[in-house]
Amino acid sequence: MTTDLRALRPAEWEPWFRQLELAFGGVPEHPQERELWKALTECERSIGVWDGDVCVGTAGAFTFRLSVPGGALVPTAGVTMVSVASTHRRRGILTSMMRRQLDDVFAWGEPLAVLTASEPAIYGRFGYGIATRQLRAEIDTDRVRLSVPEGTDDVALRLAPPEEASAACEAVYARLVPGRPGMLARRPGWERLPLLDPPEERAGGSALQCVLAERDGEVVGFALYSTKPEWGPAGPKGTVRLRHMGALDPAAYAAVWRFLCGMDLMSAVQVGNRPVDDPWQHLVSDVRRCDLREVDGLHVRLVDLPAALEARTYRAPVDVVLEVDDVFCPWNTGRWRLSGDPKGATCSRTDDAADLALSVRELGAAYLGGVSLASLAGAGLVREARQGALAEASLAFGSAVAPWLPHGF
Ligand SMILES: CC(=O)SCCNC(=O)CCNC(=O)[C@H](O)C(C)(C)COP(=O)(O)OP(=O)(O)OC[C@H]1O[C@@H](n2cnc3c(N)ncnc32)[C@H](O)[C@@H]1OP(=O)(O)O
């Protein structure tokens, strides 16, 4: 079988995207969603694999800037729309696309590649580590009470049509990005993503709604959500489905959560993707009635290892030699001295003896500060060669807030 792997040509987008839809089960995306992804596709950064004139492989790489510990926004490739035709599976087409893509990303000078996986088992072999988790919950608001901090009553709430409120929500979102590793600075066009709301995908729920939290006329928080009314023998038992929220201070945050949890005729708030350290967990009277669950979120790959390690800061002073194994991107393999602190870091090749040995996948998992090197060592995935190095590096790599990716891509 000979196939042709090449950059996507704009005129090829339809069959290319159709291949992606087929690989994901064949149901066409809603036109609203299709149009958004078409507008956001960066053809010159996307790959198509063709068998004759049939598209059999797809992969894209959005131009992102990712928030990392310390608040820098690092140029990052957002790997997306990966698929191989079921007629051509398990013949190495994904591997060939990952090869081309990571070579490209390195050549573009982007230190990181990130993705969210349809199945977490796919990408470890290409050097991606699971760096963030997302919290899912269903809060039983008939039973759970919320205690709110002082100042919450000073926050005014106002319903607004989501389209009209979008600019104000985006302004709040943008201010949150540097403070939470894993968040993405949104480029023009991406503000449409939280507003996607095809009627066919509401599953009995309302259209998207928006509440704004304001203090002295300034928007300090928001939530995008829908409601699903339902009635049982004992009366109302509707559900609030939270899509997206953000707030600039604890009182604004609590005001939004009190609104979500206090809606009349609603018995539950469903939360699909929040940070694992989301503060509402400390406001509720009964955390057991919140049905907390966690799943993998952002998978991170260090493409240019020294540039990536120098782009973030470290929570405590650290001076370690890392012996890194990177089979898929061998330019990262070798010994690297990392010296860093809360202000910055340097990372360069060294012949000195290793303090810690690990693969680039573990480094990707630990990079945003949400997965501890000590925990990875407990699984036998990080080896300590100098006593004390593991504790030192674990502390330094940690983040005060859990890294989190608010939305898929
Ligand atoms: C970021 C995103 O876009 S996530 C979306 C990923 N896409 C999908 O899930 C759509 C449906 N699935 C597919 O399109 C394909 O099955 C793909 C893309 C996952 C794999 O494509 P293929 O061309 O079959 O993969 P390829 O032949 O290169 O396999 C490489 C290796 O990965 C392994 N692999 C491939 N798919 C999977 C999987 N789903 N789970 C576990 N391992 C896998 C193969 O067994 C192979 O292992 P080996 O090197 O030890 O032999």
From TrEMBL:
The keyword Transferase applies. Pfam families: Acetyltransf_17, Acetyltransf_9, SCP2_2. InterPro entries: Acetyltransf_17 (IPR041380), Acetyltransferase_Eis (IPR051554), Acyl_CoA_acyltransferase (IPR016181), Eis_dom (IPR025559), GNAT_dom (IPR000182), NAcTrfase_Eis (IPR022902), SCP2_sterol-bd_dom_sf (IPR036527). Keywords: Acyltransferase, Transferase. The keyword Kinase does not apply. The active site is at Y123, F409. Acetyl-CoA binds at V82, S83, V84, R90, R91, G92, I93, L94, T95, S118, E119. Belongs to the acetyltransferase Eis family. This is GNAT family N-acetyltransferase. It comes from Streptomyces gobitricini. The lineage of its organism: Bacteria, Bacillati, Actinomycetota, Actinomycetes, Kitasatosporales.
